[in-house]
Design a protein that fits this description.
By secondary structure, this protein is an alpha/beta fold. It folds into three domains: 87 residues, no CATH class; 313 residues, 3-Layer(aba) Sandwich (Rossmann fold), CATH 3.40.50; 115 residues, Sandwich (Immunoglobulin-like). It contains twelve helices and 24 strands. It has a seven-stranded parallel beta sheet with strand order 8-9-7-10-12-13-14, sandwiched between helices. It has a four-stranded antiparallel beta sheet with strand order 17-19-22-21, with no helix packed on it. It has a four-stranded mixed beta sheet with strand order 18-24-23-20, with no helix packed on it.
Length: 565
């Protein structure tokens, strides 16, 4: 959840709960939940299975009007005409046929590539993301659902990777962000890197699924949260980011979370912003440091926030449910100090709080959670054979242990470390780098050269359906890729019919690369790496050779790359 600010109204999300009373079958597509919720308070109810089996269900009172059923959770919605929600819930809970009944609640939005703003992204440096990008940059085989205020697909750093989502308030496909919060979260997860513009996110090829649970005023509901989680998993989201929360433990949301977990999804949530004495009431809490839901659920990874020095942010909540921490900023300087906030994308059509179109500095555990979601996406695309439990264990085991040794209630298992997590994924069987064939034909190992050094070879992603699946090949002399600058990005796509014959794939016919460079006298190491456009993984090879005398460089032109993106 992003922290409340004087310039922005509190983004309250009204969680509406429904009591389980008999009624006709209904789906959320039948009417607008937003319109229904506006008509009055509701209760949510779920029957006990044995009561349904025997037909012994309570008779609706005159005070309750059936609204609909949240499928497939089996939770029914009723509007309380008198407005006395407490009395209705008490009566329903007293009936042995009712598994649970709950009233309306409130939640809040918890709010080295060539990208020019990377220098302002202290958060990426803190979790060693730039070093991780030397191993993998993320592929399009992982979808992260962002339950929030929507995502603006027109932003240059997000364009082309926002997949169809759902507006659960309007039961429509209109997921455009009219608040900014969701677009900011999405940019942390997956703003495109190395595109020469804007900021960079953690996984450059990830698919971002907007699940809009708010209206333009920030109102949302328990029904919307539960339906959003279910819809996201139904439509292929492996990771669900929940940068919102409330004080009450909704049984309806519990059901949705439990179902998503059983289906293999990884759920990550903001831990909450009510940890500071001076501000907890302005964050919508009536006590200091209360558990925030859904973050406090066992099936969810709760993420606390760190400031730019790596210390726990003063507002960040603590407790036995905290699993990880990540950059969220300290706040407090009204954006005059960028290191107190997290920079990310913002809808270009909305006024920017920092007067920089398309970008904003925000603060809160809402900003911390997507660092973990983005790292998880990068891990999963690096090694898609990993199970959800394996990804979760990697995140915990590779975290930087902060505070007292071992897991603690302030930092959880520690600060997420993107580099170490990706390294672990890449070291296990099934990693995508193993699917890249990178062959160096020249120079040969330990050869002595008396002239210009000509680099020749070929590279393919063996899982590519068309083309070679490679979108970049780079060479480095006497410095590894994570330490030096490339000699020049190799033009890739030279005709190599021998490779097509070798691998039995016609699409691999243009897999070659070449470059001629000068090398001073002495012994050298040449590194070459190839990048898969499919998985975002890098494969690296190296060779040693000796050069005699200083040689004049000769550039050999290569055909323009035809690699499939």
């Amino acid at each position: 959840m992003a922290r409340t600010r004087p310039w922005l109204p509190a983004l309250t999300l009204v969680l509406l709960v429904v009591a389980a009373v008999p009624g006709p079958a209904w789906s959320l597509g039948a009417a607008s939940p937003a319109a229904q919720e506006a008509d009055g308070p509701e209760v949510l109810v779920r029957w006990r299975p044995e009561a349904l089996a025997t037909g012994q269900t309570p008779t609706p009172t005159a005070d309750l009007t059936y609204v609909g059923t949240l499928e497939p959770l089996g939770v029914e919605r009723y509007r309380v005409r008198s407005g006395d929600v407490a009395a209705s819930v008490a009566a329903l809970r007293a009936d042995p046929a009712v598994e649970f009944a709950e009233p309306n609640r409130q939640i809040r939005l918890l709010g080295l590539p060539n990208d020019p703003r990377l220098g302002d992204q202290w958060n990426m440096q803190q979790i060693q993301a730039p070093d991780a990008w030397n191993l993998a940059t993320g592929g399009g085989d992982v979808t992260v659902a962002v339950l929030d205020s929507g995502i603006d697909p027109s932003h240059p750093d997000l364009a082309g990777r926002v997949v169809p989502g759902r507006n659960v308030r309007e039961t429509s496909g209109n997921t455009r962000d009219d608040l900014g919060h969701g677009t900011h979260v999405a940019g942390i997860i997956g703003a495109l890197g190395n595109n020469g513009a804007g900021v960079v996110g953690l996984s450059w090829g990830v698919r971002l699924m907007p699940i809009k649970i708010t209206d333009r005023f920030g109102d949302a509901s328990i029904v919307g949260a539960a339906e959003g989680i279910r819809w996201a998993v139904d439509h292929g989201a492996r990771i669900v980011n929940l940068s919102f929360g409330g004080l009450d433990d909704s049984q309806t949301v519990r059901l949705a979370v439990r179902e998503a977990r059983l289906r293999g999804a990884l759920l990550i949530a903001a831990a909450g912003n009510c940890g500071e004495m001076a501000s907890y009431q302005s964050e919508g809490c009536d006590t200091l440091n209360p558990p925030i839901y859904p973050a406090a659920l066992e099936e969810v990874i709760a993420v606390g926030a760190l400031d730019a020095t790596g210390q726990l942010a003063p507002y960040s909540e603590t407790g036995d449910y905290i699993r990880l921490t990540a950059p969220g900023g300290a706040g407090g300087s009204q954006r005059t100090n960028p290191r107190d906030y997290v920079l990310s994308t913002w809808p270009p059509g909305l006024p920017s709080p920092i007067d920089q179109t398309g970008f904003s500095y925000e603060v809160g555990t809402s900003m911390a959670a997507p660092h973990v979601a983005g790292t998880a996406a990068l891990v999963w695309s690096t090694n898609p054979t990993l199970s959800r439990d394996q990804v979760e264990s990697i995140l915990f085991d590779t975290a930087d242990d902060l505070g007292v040794p071992g897991r603690d209630d302030r930092y959880g298992y520690g600060r997420v470390n993107t580099l170490r997590a990706v390294e672990r994924a890449a070291s296990l069987p099934g990693n995508r780098a193993a699917d890249i064939r990178l062959i160096l034909d020249a120079p040969q190992p330990d050869v002595v050269l008396a002239g210009p050094v000509t680099l020749q070879g070929w590279a393919v992603d063996t899982l590519a359906d068309g083309g070679t699946g490679i979108d970049a090949v780079e060479a480095y002399l006497d410095q590894s890729p994570n330490q030096g600058q490339p000699l020049g990005r190799l033009q890739y796509g030279i005709a190599r019919p021998d490779v097509a014959r070798l691998l039995g794939r016609g699409g691999f016919a243009n897999a070659g690369f070449t470059l001629t460079v000068d090398a001073p006298a002495g012994t050298h190491t040449l590194w070459v790496r190839a990048h898969s456009a499919l998985s975002g993984a890098w494969s690296v090879q190296q060779v040693r050779f000796a050069a005699i005398g200083r040689l004049t460089p000769i550039a050999l032109p290569s055909p323009i790359a035809t690699a499939t993106r």
